Prior knowledge:
This protein is α+β, with helices and mostly antiparallel strands and 397 residues long. Helix content is 28%, strand content 20%. The chain has helices at residues 28-45, 90-103, 113-116, 135-139, 166-171, 190-204, 208-217, 262-265, 271-282, 290-293, 296-302, 379-390, and strands at 4-5, 15-17, 50-57, 60-71, 76-77, 83-85, 226-227, 242-244, 249-251, 267-270, 316-318, 323-328, 335-345, 348-355, 360-366, 368-370. The strands form 3 sheets. Strands 2, 3, 4, 5, 11, 12, 13, 14 and 15 form a 9-stranded antiparallel beta sheet that branches.
Amino acid sequence: MNRAIPHTLLAAALVCALPATAGVPAGFDAAWKAAEGRYRQILQSQDVVGSSLYFVHEGKTVRAAHHGYADVDSDRKVDENTLYHWASITKTFTEVAAMQLRDRGLLDLDDPVSKYLPEVRQVHNPYGSMDAITLRHLITHTSGFRGPTFPWRGDGDWKPHEPKHWWQVAAMMPYSEIQFAPGSKYSYSNPGTSMLGRVIEIVSGDDIEMYITKNILMPLGMTRSYFDVTPYYLLKHRSNNYTVSDDKTVAEGLDFDTGATTGNGGLNGPVSDMIKWLNFWLGVGDNGNYDTVLARSTLREMWQPGFPTTDDSVEERMGMGFFVIDHPSADGSATTRYIGHTGSQKSFTAFVYIQPETRTAVVYAANSNRTDGSRETGPLRRIRRDLMETVFPVFGK
């Protein structure tokens, strides 16, 4: 049962790890120090319970900041071992998994979704046949499917966070509708990625979490990353998550089950494992298994920008499972391209971005969210923009 936590218990010493900065350009230390100060100010203004922010260059962490508590009741502060929920960043794993199967000749992106999931033919489609919706539409969020997987979630304790079984997702299809002509524009769709995860299960014969574990997590050495319920030996590092309002902060619990939507948002792990994932994107670091996971040419294919997104705060387009941001320079004379993804589920929020040319990356995670805030004024977008305007550019000079 959730318990209200007085704000007075949330005051915590802020911990900052300061690794050596050999090899980084002049001006980085000053830029980071200023950005870290703003990061902390933003977190404090939003009453964020716990958070981590890491900046990476050439596969190595050059700066890391931690704030607050992983779990208030046990007086456990955030540190380098804290396990966060990565929410929709999980989608990048599912979409890479689909491209693995494409490259092995086991599926084609232009295959109809109905080839693997005939139940989608029950969806009402005013724009034509459901057989015209392809796997490519799912991976680029251009299918026309709605945004939420489970649109009827309410406040009752008996209602699941997400549908537990695929048959429950399929049972909703006769009461679902395609919202625009497939392939005509972008619209973020959680059920679209859940369907892609189900296709991967059918093609590979593995549950989606097992497929990703065997074919992505294991070869990349992401040994403390896992789906849904935390292994008992890692519970001492698991972050709780908290809803925050002006009068109270409420713990949501250490674990929750993403059920049939695991491939859409079920991954958990420490920042150090997420850095291994970003090092794979960049092709840097000590791991020798990158080509085993996916060819560089396929990753570059996935990063080609398509339709513009609905995020008006940045110049952003959707690739194949990745968001592509072309951020203007301070004087507006040029743009710098960033590849990444955000995540938000329960009260966890996160983002990951790389800048391929300078081989830099950032990971942000937080374990709380205000119930009376908005995406535009919340920490995630403000911190992301600040880093793209002040820290990343130092490496491009």
